[in-house]
Write a structure and sequence with these properties.
By secondary structure, the chain is an all-alpha fold. The chain contains four helices and no strands.
């Protein structure tokens, strides 16, 4: 028998999935910009991925963007 999920559990899981989808989209946009030779900026990535500026500076995402920028230099 599985435990009942509360509305809070459902909401928490939905937010987790949404966050993962956004982070995945940001990383895909960075890779796409890099492949096309487009200049990679934090603002440009945020706009292209349709996410907040905050997310592109979040831990785990920021490092990926910084590495891509360094490889372009």
């Amino acid at each position: 028998m599985t435990a009942k999920r509360t509305p809070a559990d459902v909401l928490r899981e939905a937010r987790k999935q949404d966050s993962l989808a956004k982070r995945t989209r940001v990383l895909a946009v960075v890779d796409e910009m890099k492949a096309k030779g487009e200049p990679i900026t934090f603002l440009g990535v945020a706009k292209a991925a349709g996410v907040s500026n905050w997310l592109v500076y979040a831990e785990g995402v920021r490092e990926h963007i910084e590495a891509a920028r360094k490889s372009q230099a």
